[in-house]
Amino acid sequence: MKNIKNPEIDNYNVLINKRLSINTAINLVGKIIQNTIFSEKESESTMKLFSNSVKEDIIKKCYEVLKIYNIPIPEKQFELLSRNECIGTSFQGYLLLNYNQIVELFGPSNYGPSGDGKIDWEWVLKLNGEVITIYNYKTGPSYSKQNINVKPQDLKRWHIGGTSKEVLANIENYIGISGVVVEC
User: Fold this and answer.
1) Among 50, 75, 100, which residue terminates a domain?
2) Of the residues 75, 96, 113, which one is the last residue of a structural domain?
């Protein structure tokens, strides 16, 4: 079986016959076209807003085409929660994606630094009825002076919290790519 490099997943191989979720595939199409039209410098400079707008228009058009051809589009399967709603979760494994890839899936992190300084960026969400947290742990600027210059984009390994190991399969199924969730 031949492996191919997926430009959207840093240093991970995706099997050719692996099926991506519709949402992941459409986001990849948008990102590929965005990167074809705009250079990396333009995507990170003052052109960023225009570049992102073009990408959003492409994604919107992809969904319109799917609707025209009566291809079922799964509803957004997660909702953001408050930190109070994740009480009782604990570390279950790792998510091997960079910050931008997680933002593509779930939007920007919905919580900043924790009171004890151990977490700088965190998503608290309910995915398919299950409470899940994705967060950095003791790797950011709030925890140590040696990490003072760390940005979320520097991180490639994030903690996954939940009430059981089932959250790992839940996230992997939602992302649609195997190998990016690792059990501890």
Assistant:
1) 75
2) 75
Consecutive H or E run containing 63: helix 48-68
Alpha carbons 60 and 67: distance in angstroms, whole number: 11
Strands 130-135 and 158-162 come out as antiparallel
Beta strands in 21-76 (DSSP E): none
What pTM value is reported for the model?
0.63
Element (H, E) at 93: strand 90-95
> How far apart, in whole angstroms, are the C-alpha atoms of residue 143 and residue 15?
38
Sign of CA dihedral 59, 64, 69, 74: positive
The per-residue pLDDT string of the chain (184 residues; one tens digit each, 9 = 90 and over) reads: 344 444 444 333 333 334 556 667 777 777 777 777 777 666 566 666 676 677 778 877 887 887 887 777 666 678 889 988 999 999 999 999 999 899 888 888 999 999 999 999 999 999 988 999 999 999 999 999 999 999 999 999 999 999 999 999 999 888 877 788 898 7
Is 8 domain-assigned?
A: no
What's the domain range around 31? 19-75
For residues 172 and 20, is the Cβ–Cβ distance under 8 A? no
Answer whether residue 175 is part of any domain: yes
- The total of structural domains in the chain comes to 2
Residue 125 parent element (H or E): strand 122-127
